[in-house]
Amino acid sequence: MPELPETETIARDLDESIRGAIVRDLVVLRDDVLREVDAAGLASALLGAEVRRVWRRAKLIVLDVAEARHAEAMVRWHLVVQPRFTGGLFIERNASPEEIGSYVCVSFGLTDGRRLHYRDVRRLGTVALMSPARFAAYSAALGPEPLDPALGDAEFSVLLRASRQPLKVALMDQRRLAGVGNIYANEALWRAGLDPSREARSLSDTESAALRAGLQAVLLASIAARGTSFRDYRDARGERGRFVEQLAAYGRAGEPCQRCGHRLVGTHAIDGRSTVFCHTCQR
User: Is residue 146 included in any domain, yes or no?
Assistant: First the structure.
């Protein structure tokens, strides 16, 4: 479930909390979440390394690590975590992986006594180790960030209107636009008053600008509320996001539209996922 606001929240928390920390030990309890590396290779790369930065790209949480002995050393590896539906990173003090519970997949011990755990109930997320060159190529296959100031109205319009897909599908296409998932596609389309089943290429410049504004507004509002928690999402502190209280569409099928009062419709026909919209005021 973690989308852009949730992974941004986790990345910001971790950057503030563990930037400069050194990895003391590593425990891999579920190696099926590892990608592009095995447990031994992960330990070889990370033991004794320093976390230089934690940041987000799309729905990924990226930890930049370098040799701790050299203050000016270039980033040697990117630890790339993709939480997908039920994964998450969180910090515990003086707690072993076994004490946290059976859903911890990988646990990193830090020299200050804390542990950084990757926990994943369904183990659909991944933990990958990439060189800077490999990550640059991986990132290049993703679309631009929706909150990037360089993505203006004109660029956003070109990006969407090149697609024959339904609007909701185009918004969630990570090769076209990075970081947007089901929750915020529903919300952005409701804010812009646009039918999620419309072809993306049918948008006028005015409609495209309204959608960009609605998308950016909902993403920023959710980041401010530390994300949306329905079931499994927790931030790096183990706390729930509060944006669920502000949702106008997602999860509200059958309830009155907050704009026009008509009943919201829920369907899985557009992309096999839950789509909630107003037949009356979304055109």
Answer: no
Catalytic site residue from 3, 6, 8, 145: 3
pLDDT tens readout for residues 120-133: 999 999 999 999 99
Catalytic-residue membership of 3: yes
**Is 157 found in the same domain as 124?**
no
CB within 8 A of 205, min separation 6: which ones?
153, 157
How far apart, in Å, are the Cα atoms of 280 and each of 190, 249, 259, 270, 277? 11, 13, 10, 18, 9
Which residues, including other chains, have CB under 8 Å from residue 236's CB and lie 6 or more apart? 9, 10, 13, 14, 17, 88, 89, 90, 91
Whichever domain contains 41, its CATH number is 3.20.190.10
Q: Which residues fall within 8 angstroms of residue 137, CB to CB, at 6 or more apart?
A: none
Cα 220 to Cα 206: distance, rounded to the nearest angstrom: 21
pLDDT digits (tens, 9 = 90+) for 206-228: 999 999 999 999 999 999 999 98
Identified catalytic residue from 2, 5, 146, 196? 2
Domains: count for the chain? 2
Q: Which domain covers residue 68, as residue numbers?
A: 4-140
Is 147 within a domain? no
Tens-place pLDDT, residues 126-154: 999 999 999 999 999 999 999 999 999 99
Interaxial angle between packed helices 182-192 and 205-224, expressed in degrees from 0 to 180 and rounded to the nearest 10: 130
**Lateral strand order in the sheet of 126-130:** 34-35, 126-130, 77-82, 60-67, 49-57
pTM of the full predicted structure?
0.93
Q: Is residue 97 part of a domain?
A: yes
Is 187 annotated in the active site? no
Q: Known catalytic residue: 207?
A: no
Calculate the CA dihedral of residues 124, 47, 4, 220 and round it to 10 degrees: 150
Spot the catalytic one: 52, 56, 57, 59. 59
Active site residue 59: yes
